[in-house]
Amino acid sequence: MGRLDGMTAMAPARNEPDLSFLLDHTSHVLRTQMSAALAEVGLTVRMHCVLVHALEEERTQIQLAELGDMDKTTMVVTVDALEKSGLAERRPSATDRRARIIAVTEEGARVAARSQEIVDRVHREALGALPKQEREVLLRALNRLAEGHLAVPSADGTARRARQQVK
Amino acid sequence: MGRLDGMTAMAPARNEPDLSFLLDHTSHVLRTQMSAALAEVGLTVRMHCVLVHALEEERTQIQLAELGDMDKTTMVVTVDALEKSGLAERRPSATDRRARIIAVTEEGARVAARSQEIVDRVHREALGALPKQEREVLLRALNRLAEGHLAVPSADGTARRARQQVK
DNA sequence: TATTGTTATACTCTATAACTATA
DNA sequence: TATAGTTATAGAGTATAACAATA
């Protein structure tokens, strides 16, 4: 699952708070824990995300892709995996014959209930390592950042070069 | 610079604190801001990381790779870039003729001073969006997590399959 | 025999392009 | 003309393997 790559110690040996390292490290490690925990029920993070959103209401692949911040081509692969596992099915939309509704199977609903418990448990275990008051302030502060100064990604430095024509 | 991919709303619509989303989102956005800011002085995050560590004392590529949590092959590419920009040079180690010391040039030291200011500024701007007390608790809590429950990555679910023989 | 640094390359991931079928 | 979903594939990133020089 890769490395942190350079974010380790952006502010080394100077006793400056290294927010980059802290956020990258904790999110990276939490993600490995989440992936490992969800693997126990045969899900990836993406599959869990799609299952849960598809259970809420009738949604098309594009709608699910937007909710999970995935590309529509990534969604194809994810739905393929869910279908192969028998957890969801593609059904034609009643109102738009181009679109497919992702219908969660009974088995899919059972797995989703378990996977949601797993997600909550992993989060609880992480937060449980903190004093209650510290935990609440942490969540409030992260929410404030996520909604404010760290709401939207900066213009993409890694912008792709103009793509070569395929044919 | 990619997406968050499924981490968006691990705990949707349930008013559960979604630590995965918060950490992934904030670290992702901060990273885009950092990359964009460092691009102003022609550096990547990795180049900055290597420069700063190489300035502290005489270090070989392998030592710098470990400090920055990079693969040694990634370090080759990073040092190539630093050399091409005239910011660092490979020098033979006096004690081990296999190893190369990464020596920062004068220009490299100037750039590193500026890039460190940029890193600190980006961090200050992010943290500045928070009330002072909240900021301090956030850093304390993240440190506690990074040193405790979220210290080391979980066994890698994405383990590579056995590699095919090359020749 | 082990390690440093290098090159070459295989693997994974993601996104772009192009296509089909609808709208 | 535009959009939903699909397929194919380009491109970037990263890690593995093999190698030369040296320990």
Automatic annotation (TrEMBL), chains A, B:
InterPro entries: HTH_MarR-typ (IPR000835), MarR/SlyA-like (IPR039422), WH-like_DNA-bd_sf (IPR036388), WH_DNA-bd_sf (IPR036390). GO terms for molecular function: DNA-binding transcription factor activity. Residues 16-147 form the HTH marR-type domain. GO terms for biological process: response to stress. This is MarR family transcriptional regulator. It comes from Sinosporangium siamense. The gene is marR_4.
